[in-house]
Design brief:
By secondary structure, this protein is α/β, with parallel strands linked by helices. It has helices at 49-55, 60-65, 100-104, 189-192, 203-211, 228-237, 247-250, 255-270, 291-313, 343-364, and strands at 21-25, 32-34, 73-78, 83-89, 107-112, 116-122, 131-135, 147-152, 159-167, 172-174, 182-187, 214-219, 241-245, 275-279, 318-321. The strands form 3 sheets. Strands 2, 3, 5, 6, 8 and 10 form a 6-stranded antiparallel beta sheet that branches. The protein has a 5-stranded parallel beta sheet with strand order 12-11-13-14-15. Helix 5 crosses helix 10 (343-364) and helix 6 packs parallel to helix 8 (255-270). It is globular. The N and C termini lie far apart (54 Å).
Length: 369
Amino acid sequence: MKSVFDYDSNLTLREADASRLVWRSVKERAFGTYGSDALHEEGFCRLTAKERDVLRPLNDGEAWLAEQSAGIQVRFQTNSSRIFLRVKLNGRFNMTNMTQIGQCGADLYVYDEQMGFVLHEVARFAFDGDGYEVSLGHFAGQERKERQYILYLPLYIAVKSCEIGLDEDATLSPFGFSRSCRVAVYGTSITQGCCASRPGLAYTNILSRKLDIAVENYGFSGTAFMEREMGTFLGKRAPDVLFVDVEPNAGVDERLEQNAEGFLDEFLRRSPQTAVVIYSRVLFAMDRYDDYRVRLREHYAAFLKRIARAYAKKGYRVHFADGSRVFPDNFTEYTCDGLHPSDAGMFCLAKSYCKQLMRLKKLYGLDLP
């Protein structure tokens, strides 16, 4: 049977020379791995085992999704002519509205003196496995020099182990961020990165790359309900800025109104100086035909605006952002499936969040570009 691979060699998997490599876990100090406070534990989870145990009887989905590696990135500098990636996954590709690379793969960025960090390669691998070993580096035969790289881990699957293979005599060192501002984003499948074609295009990763700041992804697909306990966990992390973008999950019934104050009280009790931006939801295709959903969106936008104003009057740095303005023109063209942003939609979200951060910089003197 004919296939596209018979005619387009760019789509085929290529064998690469993996001999004489030194394999090292990205959790070693020689790498800089960011995006979670739980990296000292097994896997690449975004909440600690203890926190997941607390959540499980309250919201099992949120606890399970916290095991997935969305937003975790590895920042390292090396002069290796080859870069290989070896990943073991706790599952296989199985989603209907995401690419295999987006759900299970990884992508590698390299610093370019003219353009900043640019995409270098994505992890392409066979569909039938729960792990892969791939070549990501393409500098063999070129001038050997130190280059800075960012590796973004998968968005929608738990990673059991992640190793990078380098030349035996290669240099290796970590690097961090040029700005100290640390941002956390608590949200839904949109925040987790659903429908981004590859991990580097989840909007939290775009934002981190654009501003060169740490952005922690607490997106939990279909399960972001603003429990008090989640407010406690995020408050303990004390980010400089917290974005709360949960209306698509908590705002489909009474949970948003029931839980919002408890979540904010717990968070602000532990991190009272954090600037908090509460987003109403972006527009979905259903906003053109479902009158009930339109009324619900308008109701919750008004509610979130009121609650932000109420906390601001108490002296907290709480603000409201109108998510209906994120996508320009024909907003239906910025989603993959009518709900989840395409790559173009992810860039729109990153632009909107960046605008909010620049506003907060003027108000509170945050360390931002």
